[in-house]
Amino acid sequence: MTLGLSGLRSLVRLIDSLLQPTPLNQQSVAINVPQARADLLDLVAQLLGVLQLAAWGGIGLYLLWRTGIKLRVIGLDGTRKLADSLGALGLAAIIGIPGLAFYFAAWALGLNLAVQPSTLDNQWWMSVALILAAAGNAWAEEVLVVGYLITRLEQLGWRRYTALFAAAVLRGSYHLYQGFGGFVGNLVMGLVFGFYWQRTRRLWPLVIAHTILDVVAFIGYTMLRGKVSWLP
């Protein structure tokens, strides 16, 4: 109903892109786009999208809570602020730098669409909306894909690494709309993030790291769009 359905829609979008006469790397896809012509209505629509993402993560936490799993069990308590922050910075560096290089390589090889992280105009609220969108994405994905899904699969008796791989495939699936590179890159991210969580049982580092990655992508692209020749 949430990210699983998003994965199926992403697959349909990828197939549609493959059926076009234009190669994948000559097509583009935008992530954060205007949703209304009126400025304030667009802001409201963007915030509603963030609210939906927050609710998706909340559903996962509620279902875990119903079976007696509290926030501290999956690592969403506030007892290790410094360690969680340092872990987040490390994860962001491990994923962000190689991930950017991988994206450009996949795009150059024709395996990926040109991804536009944001096509929002320079409204006064744009930066705030993009930061909130980044946090919403991170919250929904890490809570559902890692905290909820891996926990449930392990409870069902799945082997540790089988559960890890299944969650990583789900993460890659709802990025298929970006192309094969988007799938593989997020699959690897899912393996790294999921492995870290299985070792530490701390979810905050994943949420924070994911937020950092998306903020850099969304805001960075907005600042560089039209100003550098190498950006798709």
Automatic annotation (TrEMBL):
Keywords: Hydrolase, Membrane, Transmembrane, Transmembrane helix. Residues 124-215 form the CAAX prenyl protease 2/Lysostaphin resistance protein A-like domain. GO terms for molecular function: hydrolase activity. It comes from the Bacteria. It holds the Pfam family Rce1-like. The chain crosses the membrane at residues 43-65, 86-109, 176-197, 203-224. Its EC number is 3.4.-.-. InterPro entries: Rce1/LyrA-like_dom. It is an enzyme of class 3 (hydrolase). This is CPBP family intramembrane glutamic endopeptidase. It comes from Lentzea rhizosphaerae. The lineage of its organism: Bacteria, Bacillati, Actinomycetota, Actinomycetes, Pseudonocardiales.
